[in-house]
Amino acid sequence: MVSLGLASTAPAYSITVTLGLVILAVGHLAPAALLVGFVPILCTAYAFRELNRTMPDCGTNFVWITKAFGPWPGWIFGNWIPQIATTIAMTALAQVGAVNLLSLIGLQRYADRTLPVTCLGVALIALVTAVAYRGIQLSALVQTAMVTLQLVALLGFGIAALAHHGATAPSLSWFNPFRFDGSGPFAESVLLCLFIYWGWDAALTVNEEARDRTRAPGRAAVISTLVLLSSYLFTAVAALSFAGTGTTGIGLRNEDNVTDVLAALSPAALGGPLAKVVQLAVALSAVAALLTCVVSTSRPNVSVAVHGALPRAFARVHPRFRTPTVATVFTGALAILLLTALTATVPSFLGDAVLSIGLLVCAYYGATAFACTWHFRHELRDSPRALVFKGILPVAGGLMMLAAFARSAVDMIEPSYGSTSFGGFGGVFLLGIGSMALGLPVTALIRIRFPDFFRHGRSTVTDQLVTED
């Protein structure tokens, strides 16, 4: 289950498309941003662990937030926002995977063109949807192999970069969070780091398929975050030591390198043949994350349907493969539709997509953290452990998520924020806040179609654990 959480996070992909953006915001303080961004993630991971022990339902956020705060918050923050975040992420993953695969096989001229990249991205989504449809065991084997390659590639790159002639010695000042120049760059870098860590909670969406569903998924989620922190810090320090923060050549503030750091640095650090291994790791990282997105998004839809908040067809389980049928196909089809729409209207959406996902992650992680403390509020005096892990840490995580969300949302309104703008508003703001706001009319329509859930969902949502249809 740890491999599932790591695969969904896509370490090689996440660090290569995000590290440059973090360095663009805070320079050598990128390791400090990674540490600060990890704190709310770890606090939230404990909230997920405690909630999963009590309510091990594959609906995860949807069930927990509904139980704590009611059907409307449950549907919006527990279902709509995670679904939208994952779908946007799948479009970016498909694009990165397609570009790296085309470059890897010597078709660089096609990797720079929108149509071939989009067509291959659609094919990758269709492929991983088919694998997810065939069963969790096949998915787990594929993910474990891909995650292993990613971690080995990041380790190899880091060692080579640090040992390279001319690399500077790492400095402890890079880890000092009190050296940020203002709250704006600090908030932006933390939001980006939240995206880097996002995905570890995928392990909990298959909790009902685990042998120890009350403990193993939560433990896997916490372990995943610690593994990610170690690998990201090592890679960031190695990249800074090797390339620096210059704006030319391999410098990490060179605009040509910002959204694909490993591709820019690997040839110089490792040489041609080994650089291809890193590029393969990034491509497989994107594909592995695509696969996990399909797996982790289809399972909650089963729960939502079983609890009466989606058409019953979403709860169908294949009699042989024991996987959601309609929910899996729907997830892949929706990602294909969004990928096609975004690349047709905004070909350079990747950077904005990454930033907007961070905003969505803040919203639903924060809501889940607060739901944990509210749900266990009567148990906080039972023991010091309950106070810390069910009260203090989740509330701290929720407040940090809320602060990052508020500050970042204000900054994102500016048309200069990100790479696109429309009608005087930043494209990141419109994609992030706009997709969240769209959840209100969608939920209103769902309420008309499924009134019983919105009347009684808070009291009945955990009466039935989801198994199969």
UniProtKB/TrEMBL annotation:
Membrane topology type, per the record? Answer: Multi-pass membrane protein
Q: What residue intervals traverse the membrane?
A: 24-48, 84-107, 113-133, 140-163, 183-200, 221-243, 277-295, 326-347, 353-376, 388-410, 422-446
Mind listing the GO molecular function terms for this protein? transmembrane transporter activity
Where can this protein be found? Cell membrane
- Return the InterPro entries for the record: AA/rel_permease1 (IPR002293), APC_superfamily (IPR050367)
- What keywords were assigned to this record? Cell membrane, Membrane, Transmembrane, Transmembrane helix
Establish whether keyword Cell membrane is in the entry.
Answer: yes
Please identify the protein, giving its name as recorded.
APC family permease
